Amino acid sequence: MATKERELRVNRQIRAPEVLVIDADNNQRGVMRTFDAIALAEEEGYDLVEVSPNANPPVCKILDYDKYRYQMEKRQKEARKSQVVVKVREVRMQPKIDVHDMETKSKAIKSFLDGGDRCKVTIRFKGRELAHTELGKVVLDKILAKLDELGAVFTLEQLPRMEGRMMSMMLAPSKGKKQQQSNP
Questions:
Q1: Could you tell me which residues come within 8 angstroms of residue 62 by beta carbon, excluding any fewer than 6 positions away?
Q2: Which domain holds residue 148?
Q3: Residue where a domain terminates, one of 47, 81, 115
Q4: pLDDT in tens, 128-176
Q5: Shared-domain flag, residues 115 and 160
């Protein structure tokens, strides 16, 4: 917002010697000297605002600058309101996880996915466990199976892979499948 305001030049800030003028009723007035265009805008009680500085000649519009700025801020606020922020949640576990703990972690992952967040499932290996990374892969496969049992709707965004002493996979909520399930 602030950068756009700085880009817009108003009245005496306009540097071009000639500009294409559009009046308050959106009628083209043609190309005229900047000084004459500013005088015309002041005569009507408005400001001369450079809306397209890169055109040849630059396009300027006669309008109420404060009202224009207010409308731009209002549009940007509406755009921010409709934005959806997706968080990445992380669930950590070890390769020697108990059945009950796995169920609890699966339910937590399901709630994250149902809430619209992405989830990173991580297995930490300690000491000699690092020699048996296939156990971590088995745990991640069991988690995926549990999520299917719980009815979680997700897509596997990143396959399980090793990152140093950790094996992780990324899950994302699947919007298409969720809508299909709610329709029948």
A1: 21, 22, 23, 24, 37, 40, 41, 44, 46, 47, 48, 49
A2: 88-182
A3: 81
A4: 988 988 999 999 999 999 888 888 888 888 888 998 999 999 998 887 5
A5: yes
130 within 8 A of 165, measured Cβ to Cβ: yes
**Shared-domain flag, residues 109 and 139:** yes
Q: Which strands sit side by side in the sheet containing 18-22, from one edge to the other?
A: 9-10, 47-52, 59-63, 18-22, 28-33
3-class SS at 50? Answer: strand
Handedness of CA 146, 152, 153, 155 (dihedral sign): negative
CB 63 within 8 A of CB 24: yes
Instruction: Please give the Cα distance from 7 to 104 (Å, whole number).
Output: 53
DSSP-assigned beta bridge partners for residue 39: none
CA dihedral 120, 124, 129, 134 (to 10 degrees): 0
Kindly state whether residues 77 and 142 are assigned to the same domain: no
Residue ending a domain, choose from 27, 60, 81:
81
How far apart CA 111 and CA 152 sit, in angstroms, is: 9
Distance of CA 90 to the CA centre of its chain: 20
Quote the radius of gyration of the chain (alpha carbons, Å). Answer: 29
Cα–Cα distance, 143 to 146 (Å, whole number): 5
Same structural domain for residues 115 and 154? yes
User: pTM of the full predicted structure?
Assistant: 0.54
